[in-house]
Specification:
Elements lengths: L3 E7 L2 E8 L2 E9 L2 H11 L4 E2 L4 H14 L18 H10 L8 E2 H7 L6 H9 L12 E2 L13 H11 L13
Parallel strand pairs: 1-4, 5-6
Antiparallel strand pairs: 1-2, 2-3
Length: about 180
């Protein structure tokens, strides 16, 4: 059975979510242009059918939207289809999902939770591949000493900063100075 998807409105623009019988297979962060969001999702999930969301998917959408409005929202119960995710990335995503809204952890702290603090770079690479942004809150993982680190989503670090600000996370913004 092919993936299904739907677009949905948030305070940050139009987002999208894809799913199948095993759970959410992907999330597309909101953007101002719905056509671009649809095109990005279709590239990620060729053959996906635009459909009305099932109740569990509607619940996930409502949770994502609430979080982006700055309201408390627990997305830990959203079932993810990780069949296309390798074992290490799966462990990283499961660890990242334990970081509550408004809190952060460093790449090294997440690596330590996985049993090896030397894997901080690999944790960052796994998060850069995150197909479930917001549900797997990769934006809550920051560099050592409070710097934001990178963010591979559209808008880069500015998007990460905006998501953390919505969640009222206590992070010292150590953005690089322009040269």
């Amino acid at each position: 059975m092919p993936d299904s998807f739907t677009l949905f409105e948030t305070p940050l623009g139009t987002g999208a979510i894809a799913w199948n019988e095993r759970g959410v297979s992907g999330v597309q962060l909101p953007e101002p242009d719905a056509a671009r969001v649809r095109a990005r999702l279709r590239r990620r999930f060729p053959g996906a059918l635009e459909s009305a969301p099932a109740p569990a998917i509607r619940q996930a959408i409502d949770g994502i939207t609430a979080l982006l409005r700055g309201e408390p929202s627990d997305l830990s119960g959203v079932h993810l289809d990780m069949d296309r995710v390798d074992a290490f990335d799966r462990r990283v995503y499961e660890a990242a999902r334990t970081i509550p809204a408004g809190e952060t952890a460093s790449y090294g702290q997440l690596a330590s939770r996985l049993g090896d603090p030397r894997l901080a770079r690999e944790v960052g690479q796994a998060l850069a591949r995150n197909p479930f942004p917001i549900v797997v809150p990769c934006h809550r993982v920051i560099a050592a000493r409070g710097g934001l680190g990178g963010f591979s989503a559209r808008g880069g670090v500015a998007t990460k900063q905006r998501l953390l600000a919505i969640e009222q996370a206590n992070v010292s913004w150590q953005l690089p100075l322009e040269v």
